[in-house]
Amino acid sequence: MNLKNKKLICLILISVMLVGLLAGCGQKSTDNQQQTNNSGEKVVITMPTFSGYAPLILAKEKGFFEKHGVNVDLQIIEGLGERKQALAANQVQGMATALDVNATLAAADIPMQVVWMFDDSYGGDGLLVKKEIKSLEDLKGKKVALEVGTTSHFFFLTLLKEANVDPSEITIVDMRSGDAGAAFVAGQVDGAVTWQPWLSKGVEEGNGTLLVTSKDTPGVVSDALNLRKDLIDAKPEVAQGIVNALAEAMQYWKDNKEEADQIIAKGLNLSVEDFVATVGDLKFYDAEANKEFLGTSEKLGPIADMFNKAVEFYYNEKIIDKKPEASQFVNPTFVNNISF
Q: What single-letter DSSP state applies at residue 41?
């Protein structure tokens, strides 16, 4: 074979190899694109500014949602009423809120299901009062700020019921939880039911004291993520991707605490020191804890009892007019199929 033919054969072989490599790269690029965009449309999840929803921020900032094929946008809406309306109108497709609030959403026929538990409040929610108030009895004739129809209201009424104090003897000033904390610090009310960081601010800046916190009432206040049922039914892979991303965020936080704390604190517009202080009042659920708490489709876990207790409470208080069943509004499928 002469030199000219050898050169020609070499050129042909190189060309074939390049085509193969380009085809492989093209296939890999397509695979990655499918992984990142299997949803196609944006899923909006609404949340208030609260340390308990830290995994959402971490999953977003570290790209875990994207990794698991979902395009998630986090939307801060402080007012519960506004968040409820947004979910009902399908302006948002998911909502981070307290578990008892999900009972009221279910009773209002808003199509959603709980798919993930964030935390149990272990001091993260509480009742701030002026220092001269020593008991719930002392609140008679006083003004207490809280957001009516929310977890703060549920928490407060639970406390009053256990202490045999008639709620009608206390003036409830209806305002958002953050505003309630600010009103207390400003001296406009005698007490406020709110959460961190306002509990700490009320003690440090408002010359107040914590009469009761959720640490004294375990199991009453916990936080969950719901997704609209039409999204779950039409695109279960999107719901699975969201749950996978949250599970990975929790694991990443455990393995890289210092970095994760900085990312989350920035997302909540808090100093790292303040954020670390507030999360000490919360017990977070990781993947295994979610599996245990939600149970299975055949047999729900402890979440069923907590959900049904909230339903009974709100029904007896005439805040809701029906009793939705936990089995219709809790979906443990996705926590039992976590992969990351």
A: S
Residues 227 and 192 in one domain: no
Instruction: Give the total number of structural domains in the chain.
Output: 2
Give the pLDDT confidence score for residue 280 in this predicted structure.
84
In DSSP notation, 184-216 reads HHTTSSSEEEEETTHHHHHHHTS-EEEEEEGGG
Give tens-digit pLDDT for 10-52: 444 444 444 443 344 444 333 443 344 454 689 999 999 889 9
Crossing angle of the two packed helices 99-107 and 303-316, in degrees rounded to 10: 60
How far is residue 218 from each of residues 93, 158, 292, 301, measured CA to CA in Å?
30, 12, 17, 17
Q: Same structural domain for residues 272 and 196?
A: no
CB count within 10 Å of CB 95 equals: 28
Residue 168 lies in a domain: yes
The mean per-residue pLDDT over the stretch 185-204 comes to 89
Sheet of 191-195: strands edge to edge? 171-174, 143-146, 191-195, 125-130, 208-213
Judge if 78 and 136 occupy the same domain. no
Q: Which of 187, 216, 245 is the last residue of a domain?
A: 216
Q: What is the pLDDT of residues 219-271, one digit of tens each?
A: 788 999 999 999 999 999 999 999 999 999 999 999 999 999 999 999 999 89
Q: Which domain holds residue 318?
A: 42-120+222-337
